[in-house]
From TrEMBL, chains A, B:
Residues 4-171 form the MoaB/Mog domain. CDD domains: cinA. Pfam families: CinA (PF02464), CinA_KH (PF18146), MoCF_biosynth (PF00994). Belongs to the CinA family. SUPFAM superfamilies: CinA-like (SSF142433), Molybdenum cofactor biosynthesis proteins (SSF53218). The lineage of its organism: Bacteria, Pseudomonadati, Bacteroidota, Bacteroidia, Bacteroidales. InterPro entries: CinA, CinA-like_C, CinA_C, CinA_KH, Competence-induced_CinA, MoaB/Mog-like_dom_sf, MoaB/Mog_dom. SMART domains: MoCF_biosynth (SM00852). NCBIfam families: cinA_nterm, molyb_syn, PncC_domain, PRK00549.1. This is CinA-like protein.
């Protein structure tokens, strides 16, 4: 079973938005055993849309489209699909009632443009969109399925989950796709590949290995397409276990686990608590933890101490130290972590202080210089890292290094018990 | 001049990563007057890559590829392009020396896999990648240009800026594309469209209008393709000025301005300072400001007060109030904002306290309930909002509402002076 994904909108082609819909649709399809063959984006133009849908229908069994379903003139997907399938637009009363109710609740006038949202090609099955005014549409022709969804990510996501996937599973008999990921840290891609070459060469032919490098980690993904899921999963378990014996020190975790999730799990399991004290990372580390459901079980508080005064007032950093060593210094990082740990009454605190740029760099401390510290029950450790030249990159990398340092300390303490 | 963008990698098709490269390449091309006709992603398979490149060369003058250039077996783009252009792989000594130096600096062994990074198709022009080990490659055939770049966003970005765009500008005589965006807030898309229908209908035919709705805002984009940039820019200025006269209360700003950038500009211009006190938004508001270069001019500090104790210790919230009214209450939001303003000695402080879920909701205060407050020089205002049902969405929306409240207060104070 093959699928193609087609996202529609000039805003994608001019780079005004990043297309996140394609990735989440791809995950839905993969989880159900449907292979995504190609992903395409075209503009809001009749010929482009028509040609892209036809091509996708030639190459795949299922085509999922998003975008171009808004109430305004520039959105033409619905009209184009009606033409393509030789169908006229008719009013769907359920959709019309829903749109009116939805707008009334939000105090928005029900006008001609909104009424047009209830027009759908007569030949399609309407997929009810509880979260928006543009309905989804399901077309079938010559055994192929074409589904058109609104481009608003939140609405698309609900329709994929509640309507599209159940219908695809009922309509087709699907085999399984298995993707499993092992995350390594501490080895460059080329060194990792050399170390595991024998293991890689001995993999069964139906398992495909991919290397996915990112700052600080290399993910190894094993994929098998259209197989019996359970036995393949067991085989991957065996292969990953063998791999862990080859590179025991370098395995960070599995699947989509991020460093913050690993720390989250460690702290939750050990019923320990955390505080953060951030300067250059500006709240990013706190935000990474608090984005995870259940963070309130261990995350007590965070301080974003941007000004020198706040470093002293909120975290008890000695103003003398700031004056002598500078705000970006090992000693200030240490005092920030220890101050946050003390103030919050937390088991661990992590701190960052650095120069995120673009201004503020000096010869001794260029942009990208970041000191980090972790204060724990037994000791405080510090680390100096050069985190790059771009502000966003520096914030990301400094957050990643600080989280890794925090994890190392928690694991060290756990091992010592 | 038309271009196609092709991103290569199984990780895109299975939804393991979101393809951000396409959007940034599209922005580069658009800025130089090159129309992006289509954007496609295919897997790491020889036939798929070959077919996609051929198709892109048929439809466009320029094809930009990213991905599949790593040192490991699963990356096959380079080999495939060599075959497609009938060229053999040869060693590029400059690249080889660069790779060896780069790895030495990072303490990584120079092995066979890395040596292969210096192999390039004999027919291509090598684009030197100062930031990574995989070089870019520039091919020409029958007047068409095909460029292959590494998939690491940071490396791709530098190569686009330093190598690809200057060469494209030198190689082709380009016209201009103009995109300009006006951001509205406070009107639903359909109401906005009705209010500005006369203006929209009177637009000159070479200006294309697009509506881009997002939570809380609708962006209006005017685009003109392959025109004389300066005169079109003036015409768009006139059109936007006319539009502002039609909906004066609803214009938020221009271009890619975000609410935090608008507040950033207001505070910078007025030389005023800011502190944040976040519970449910968990550092997101602080992180939004501190991501902007120059934030240290006004951003003094932020507190992520997740535990009740930290709300009292760090922000001076009365424990009685928390006990009587609950941590998610108007009074606690008010005390958080006022406490942060006082502690930091800031002109303004913004606070959030709410239930981000998935657990913690009650009948009176369901998941998504968020109280926010802004304390300023003259008064403190509070606002209650239902921010949705999904944790990530609640954090985003609560941050957006709190920022809008902050902006309103600063503008109100500015107008009162």
């Amino acid at each position: 079973m093959k699928a193609s994904i087609l996202t529609i909108g000039d805003e994608i082609l001019i780079g005004q938005i990043v297309d996140t819909n394609s990735a989440s649709i791809a995950r839905h399809l993969n989880n159900a055993g449907i292979v995504v063959w190609e992903r395409t984006s075209v503009g809001d133009q009749r010929e482009q849309i028509t040609e892209a849908v036809k091509r996708a229908m030639n190459q795949s069994d299922v085509v999922i489209l998003t975008g171009g379903l808004g109430p305004t003139k520039d959105d033409i997907t619905k009209k184009t699909l009606a033409e393509l399938f030789g169908s006229r637009l008719v009013c769907d009363q359920t959709v019309a009632d829903h749109v009116r109710r939805m707008l009334e609740a939000r105090g928005i006038e029900y006008n001609r443009l909104n009424r047009d949202q209830a027009l759908v090609p007569a030949c399609c099955t309407v997929l009810f969109n509880a979260h928006g005014t543009a309905p989804g549409m399901w077309f079938e022709q010559n055994g192929k399925v074409v589904v058109s969804l609104p481009g608003v990510p939140f609405e698309m996501e609900h329709l994929m989950t509640d309507e599209v996937m159940p219908r695809l599973k009922a309509r087709f008999s699907l085999r399984q796709i298995v993707h499993r990921t092992l995350i390594t840290a501490g080895l460059a891609e080329s060194m990792l590949a050399e170390k595991i070459a024998d293991w890689e060469n001995a993999l069964p032919p139906y398992l495909h290995l991919a290397y996915l490098p990112a700052p600080g980690v290399v993910r190894l993904r094993l994929s098998a397409y259209e197989v019996e899921g359970e036995s393949v999963s067991h085989e991957i378990d065996r292969q990953f276990a063998a791999l862990q014996r080859i590179i025991p020190r370098y395995v960070l975790g599995f699947e989509r686990a991020t460093m913050q999730e690993i720390v989250h799990n460690l702290l939750t399991r050990r019923r320990q608590t955390l505080a953060t004290a951030e300067s250059c990372t500006g709240g990013s580390i706190a935000a990474r933890f608090t984005a995870i459901p259940g963070a309130s079980a261990y995350f007590l508080c965070g301080v974003v101490a941007y000004s020198n005064e706040s470093k002293s007032n909120l975290l008890g950093v000695d103003p003398e130290t700031i004056a002598c060593r500078g705000a970006v210094s090992e000693e200030v990082a240490r005092q920030m972590a220890e101050g946050a740990r003390r103030t919050a009454g937390a088991d661990y605190a992590v701190a960052t202080t650095g120069i995120a740029g673009p201004a503020g760099g000096t010869e001794q401390k260029p942009v990208g210089t970041v000191w980090m510290a972790v204060a724990g029950p037994h000791r405080t450790v510090t680390l100096l890292k050069q985190c790059g030249t771009d502000r966003g990159q520096i914030i990301d990398r400094a957050s990643a290094f600080a989280l890794a340092l925090l994890r190392d300390e928690i694991e060290r303490d756990a091992a010592g018990e």
